[in-house]
Design brief:
mainly alpha; Four Helix Bundle (Hemerythrin (Met), subunit A); about 80% helix; elongated; signal
Length: about 120
């Protein structure tokens, strides 16, 4: 997923440089944010696997995802992307609630599924 997003970022950057179109700038922002979300989700997966050793890593990863979601939500008017962002936000809140209630092995599948969907929506072509 990361290599596909990196290629999409490079493609969007090249097209933006050549054309200078506002829509391409927006697409590039989407791709860059999706890549940041993918990185945060990777961190979340690592934190979830070692949550019993350091549960604060889970909260830090969730905070990172929330920050990137806020950025993405502010820049989109795409219905598919808005739905994926909403799904990811719900997943983050669900995991955050589970962690607060003492769950050291929360189900992060809804987060990974929604992050994958964001990657698909943000990848040009």
């Amino acid at each position: 997923m990361k290599s596909r997003l990196a290629l999409a970022v490079a493609t969007a950057a090249a097209l933006t440089t050549l054309v200078g179109c506002g829509a391409l700038d927006k697409a590039m922002d989407c791709v860059a944010t999706a890549d940041a979300i993918a990185t945060s989700v990777d961190r979340l997966q690592q934190a979830a696997s070692s949550a019993s050793n350091d549960p604060t890593q889970l909260n830090e990863a969730l905070n990172d995802i929330s920050t990137e979601l806020d950025k993405l939500q502010d820049t989109t008017d795409n219905a598919d992307l808005s739905k994926a962002v909403d799904d990811l936000t719900k997943g983050v809140e669900s995991v955050r609630t589970a962690v607060k209630e003492g769950d050291t092995t929360p189900d992060i599948k809804p987060i990974t599924d929604a992050a994958t969907e964001i990657g698909k929506v943000c990848t040009p072509g």
